[in-house]
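Exercise 7. Predict the joint structure of the components listed below.
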Amino acid sequence: MVNPIYIIAVLLGIGFILPLTEKKLSKLGPWVFYAGMIFTALVSYQWFRFFIVSGGETYHIFTAGVKPPLSINLQIGLFESVLLFVTNLTGLAGAVYMTKQISETGVRAMVLLLLLLLGLNGLILTRDIFNLFVFMEITAISTYSLIGMDVKSRSLSAGFKYMTAGGLASAFLLLGIIIVYSLTGTLNLDGMIRSAEGIKNVKLLSIGSMMILFSFIIEAKQFPANGWALDVYEGTKPGVAGLISGIGTTAVFFGFYKIMPLFTNETLKIVMWAGLITFFFSNLMGMKQENVKRMLGYSSVAQTGLVISVSAWSFMLGNDKLIFPMIVLPLLFNHFFTKTGLFWIAGLVKKDTTGLWGSITENKILHGIFIILILALSGFPPFPGFWGKWNLVLAMSLDSNFFYIWVLLAGSLFEAAYLLKWAGITLKKDKSKDILEYNSYKMLALQIVVLIFFAVTVYYFMTGNFDHTNGGLHFYLPFALGTGLLLLPFIPEKLKGMISMSVIAVYAFYFLPDQNGIGRFFNAMFLSGGFFLTFATLNRKDRSRSFYPLLMLMLGSLIALVNSDNILHFFFSWEIMTLSSYFLIHRGKGSAEESFRYVMFSLAGAFLMLLGFAYSFPNLNGQMSFGIFAVPGQFTSLSFILISIGFLVKSAALGLHLWIAGSYAKAEDDTSAFLSALLSKAGIFGFVMLLLAMGAPSAGKFDLAYILSWIGALTALIGTMMAIYEEDAKRLLAYSSMGQVGYIILGLAIMSGLGWTAALFQMVNHFLIKGILFLAIAGVIYRTGTSEMYKMGGLIKKMPWSFTAVMFGIIAISGVPPLTGFGAKWLMYEALIEKGWYLQTGMAFFASTVAFLYCFRLIHAIFLGQPKTEFRNVKEAPAWFLIPQYVFIMAIFFFSIFPRVLIDRISAAVEPFFGKSLTWDGNTVISSLGYWNATAVMTIVGVVFVVLAIGLFIKLPKVQKVKQFNIVFAAERPETPELTHFAYEFFRPYRRAMGWMVRPYATRFWRSVTESAYTVSDALRKIYTGNGQTYIFHILLVLVILFYISTGVK
Amino acid sequence: MENFWTTLLYAFISMFIIFNYGMVLGGVVYKIIARVHGRFGPPVWQPYINLVKVMGVRTAISHGIMFWLGPVFRFTGGIGLFLFMPVLFGVPWMQNFSFSGDLLLVIYFIFFGQLGMALGAAESGHPYSPMGIMRGLSQVTASEVPFALAVIALAAQHGTLSITEIVAAQQGGIANWNIVTNPVATLAGMMAFLGMMMHAPFNLHIAPQEIPIGPPTEYQSNFLSYMQANRAFFASAKLILFMNLFFGGATNIPVLVGKTFSLYMITVFIGVVNPRFTLENSIRWFIRIPTVTGIIAVLIYTF
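Solution:
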């Protein structure tokens, strides 16, 4: 083992030698420099291995061979070795990144980098507080100089601001050290901590620790005393900014982390809240930011604030040994790698404005890295940030600190907002070419950092509190499928589709037979739906690297969601599902805004769900099973409400539906079918899980299930109402989907055997119908190139198969006997009346009659009426689309004639929870109120229909067939089919009478919410004027406030 | 249904009766309207003459398969609706196939013919056809609201959705009829009834005499004969439904005729002295007083 002191010695040594030998050994210089860097990395790797693999014990190094307090001592333990290793490796990568700069500036840059690294290593290793101060100064000086090396007014002024703030921080630190030293008589940290407890002059000690706190607050860039830091990030070259944000912040943080035990609980509390406030406000202000580096600066400041806040809290709890690896380290690593990576990517792009980053897609690898880093930074699974936040939320809930979780999640939402918006821009190709400044050294450095980050991610994924034995397969499945297909970009698209289908089939074959209960319906639906809808994607002609991986990731996460057995599995799969569907929607043309809205709603919903989990989590003393919901706790109803909102967002319930029309409409046509037929059921599954675990609690006087029933009924009505006024077929179907899912929610809210049978029957029905309708429309759009219904017309002659499919679809969806839709309606009304919810029944009934309007409109405007000249030669939709439609139609007919097959199975699954609700007499199903014999209905209708049709055929043997445009009305012959097709604004009179129901209250509300958030963000960030004096004023202001808070205002 | 063939035979008998009843009823209405207008009016058997006439028309034009099937859908809807309903209480040969389903089946089956007809007429390519359909469908959605609420109130009152049981509960004199025991629901139901019977003021969508609009103008010959025959079934079936729901049902044919005729006359009398509503007017009307009445009817049983 190489003593880590040699790291310091070697870095210092080379730092001295290089300038001295600059002239004589100019060619050797860089070699020596890189050798030194590699040496430090290797030594730290050795220690890293020693602690990780061999589980070595903490090692102390005493300089000058004497023990403290006489000597300065260093310490290397598990955490130090980990930090040391990533710091030195990233430092090396940084040196590689800056190769060009180094060769241009020569020795100066090398020396500064060496010094920076030296300072950082020292900060991590030392256990001597004065020594810590010295290393901090070294770090600071080398950083100013690195910033100022780029001789531009912006960098120079940034460097100067840094120097001023850093000077203040150092001054306070030194003062604090002097005071504490005078009291404890030692500079050794461990000694100080030990003797601090017995000190009698508490006042002086608290002044000392306050001085250190002041320094800490400035150095850690706490809000609002951090304007200088933002200018630094913005003004510095990305290579250096990446190092400052990544390794710089980490080492400085760790330096202070070591001092934290000196703080009293009151001081720690201040640090904890200051950090959280910084996290919240920095992210809020970041939302309005468009300069890439400054935006990253905001994020950097925010993340640092969070890490510090959590550390302070861990010392308050006295639980730092556990919290550090479980929460602090993953958060820190997540910040460290993503920020370094993103800054370095910014160095490869010529443009500083986020809006101009569209062409980064030119370099696929760079773009891929960029997206991954953004996702990691936004806290999505499976990256370390996710685990950190997850553990933090749960730990905070055990500490009953719910306010903290609210603020934390709000801040995270803001952060995700600006990061995903930025990512969204790059996902759309734009015309601005040539924005990349390709440099192979920079790429190499970036790849090194990303590789380490991958290793860290895999580590956290494998150890991240995951039960790998029980149902583990489901959790690896989405990733295995997704990455598997991603790694096969060279095989043809059709083959990818077929591979996907066969994987689904094999999985279903081995997995489904062992299933039982309600989960089985969801599994069967997702698997069969996944299989047949994927069939339609085989029509794709364009090659795409991401489509099938994303699709499989989404389907896999749905399966994983259904089979999750605790809240972690559930939330994990939920996030993956949100993410994969977001990217799928984003693939559609012109979908940037809509998919962004979708992901923001989903994410906000997911965060509320997480909050709901947190409120219930303490119920079973830290177990993650769904059992926590069954135990009555203090916050049961609040928890229920919050989780429900998460599910309601996914189900597009009224008020939370803003995303649905746009994202369904703008997604690619075959993808929309997946979204509506399958993805919309995720929220329903959530409700099934929640209601089974929690029942339906009541909040005060209100029965929450009753409230849920109204939400469901109103969603059904208003969704349907909105559908009838749409001109775009896909938007129409999207709102129809919203309404239909509203019924399902209504059924579940009944909380009776009949209600749940109705809901699940309706769910299967809706799955089949929306599969048919969206695919049929996809076929039509594929041929005509438009989704505006009034532009089409008369296509029945060209696309008879699609027409027939749509016809069966609308008969089934409208609930007209004899198809399955009636079964769903029958069960629903019987259940509602049985429950005594008459008004909801009336509303559901109203909704179902209004549904006729859009059903007719859909089929008439597209297939009936007059054909347009431009579509004279369109062909029938491709068989890829038609085959799954007809498979679904066969299923609908089967369930229409033999609904017992389905109803029996649903009842059996529901019975254990609610008891028996239906009896059978032959083919007649009997509820407590009425009866229905589907087989008889189908037979009677079928026979009458056939007899009448034959009768007409016999009586009208010679009917004259005319062409579509061969019509006369009011003694006039129309001349242009375009003017003869009545389809645009079809229900205008209805709108005049009933339009008041669809006034966009929700849209207005959410628009005002987002606008106020942006306005606040914009107003707040104006405090950062860019003037150094203002910044100093901020710092002083914060210090005064801190002083009053910590001494108590008297 | 011990014996399927017996049931079938009974169904044919009841269909025969109801068809003729429906036709004559139509003729009587022509007569009444004429008399109110101060004309002599056609004979009561005029609908038969009309039917024979259209069947003999040689011009038969089809715009496509859906157009061809439209009247078949429509007629199936009318006959089916009738067949799913028990006609006379306690009379085995007038029960039709009511074992197939309860009140909900009957209500939803009303839409079967309408939807099929709408699809057929829309294929004619005439811009006026979808316009008429749009008007018809729009009005139906509005008039169904009070009707649904009235039905829900009845279901809540009697604890069943079976038509036979609802009729059974009303036996034993006028005091047991739902119009007496549940007047609010009956009021809501009867207001909806006005909209469903296609008489003024709610007949904008079948106004072929004045403006050439709606499906009936596009069909000729046997297509039209199906639609006319259907009207006999459809109207009678709806009358029987309302009689069963609110007016105690019927145990023999004279009572059936008496009650349904009186019911029909309500809409005819209101229609004959009223002008025609525009679509917006009629929708607004249904959404206001009848719906509020229906909500009150339902609220009575909620609390």
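Discussion. The two ends of chain A are 57 Å apart (CA to CA).
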